Amino acid sequence: MGLDKIIEYQSIDIKLYALENEFQRSDELKNLKILQNNYKEKTEELSRMMKETQELFSSFEKSGLRISEVDGLEEDLSRDINSINDLDELDLYDKSLLKYDESISSIERELNRTAKRFTEIKIEVQKLIEQRLEINKLYVQHKKYHDDKINDVKMKAAPIMRELQVLRESVDPKLLSKYEELRAARKMPAYVEYNDGNCSGCGMHIFIEVNAKLNNKGDTAECPECRRIVYKL
Ligand SMILES: [Zn+2]
Questions:
Q1: What CATH class does 14-169 carry?
Q2: How far is the C-alpha of 31 from the C-alpha of 174, rounded, in Å?
Q3: How far is the CA of 171 from the centre of ligand 1 (A)?
Q4: Which of 24, 46, 52, 167 has the fewest Cβ atoms nearer than 10 Å?
Q5: Residue 20 in contact with residue 160, Cβ under 8 Å?
Q6: How far is the first Cα of the chain from the last one, in angstroms, to the nearest whole number?
């Protein structure tokens, strides 16, 4: 009978399914993903630093423009003091001198601030580059653990897959396709016993919805709750 074959197929495939889950949950896979994320974070951080460096360059350029303002003031100030005729003119001269002093101080502060940030960025970038190299080293090592794990899983899976391949020929294609649909949705096992009015997959009481369809041994119905196929023993 068709149902027997798919149940047999399922009982073997469950071992393959367990192997797949074991790999998905394995430290080998988790560690590799963590390292990939770390590497990505460091790379993003580096590109933020590069962007800030660009911004610092343009602030240097702005300081350069301000220096040319000071140049203008310098011209005023380089006049011969003896050519100043009255107090008003002297006052004006003093004001220019003060403005000159303020401008120089403010440009100095700006340049210091920018230079300080450059130094900080330089240190940060060096740190990030070292961290990335370290992650790379770890990645190579953990990629090997990961690949070993895959090979191990593949070796264990091979005989099971061969067995399933042979069995497939004798399974009703409709039942198989329903099975694969449920498996892909991670509803495993997909074919479950109808047990005392309950779906033994999800445990819900489904007597009212399905009992009328399950009169004889091997009758099947879809569980309205989890969509697994329940069968009567
Ligand atoms: Zn169910």
A1: mainly alpha
A2: 40
A3: 23
A4: 24
A5: no
A6: 13
Residues in the 5 Å CB sphere of ion ligand 1: 199, 201-202, 223, 225-226, 228
> How many A from CA of 75 to the centre of ligand 1?
91
Ordered by start, the domain boundaries in the chain are 14-169, 190-231
Q: How many angstroms does the Cα of residue 205 sit away from the middle of ligand 1?
A: 8
CA of 219 to the centre of ligand 1 (A): 16
**Spatial CB neighbours of 34, under 8 Å, sequence gap ≥ 6:** none
The Cα–Cα gap between 219 and 222 comes to 11
CA-based nearest residue to 210, from 183, 231, 187? 231
pTM: 0.73
How far apart, in whole angstroms, are the C-alpha atoms of residue 231 and residue 213? 10
User: How many angstroms separate the alpha carbon of residue 224 from the centre of ligand 1?
Assistant: 7
Residues 6+ apart with CB under 8 A from 115: none
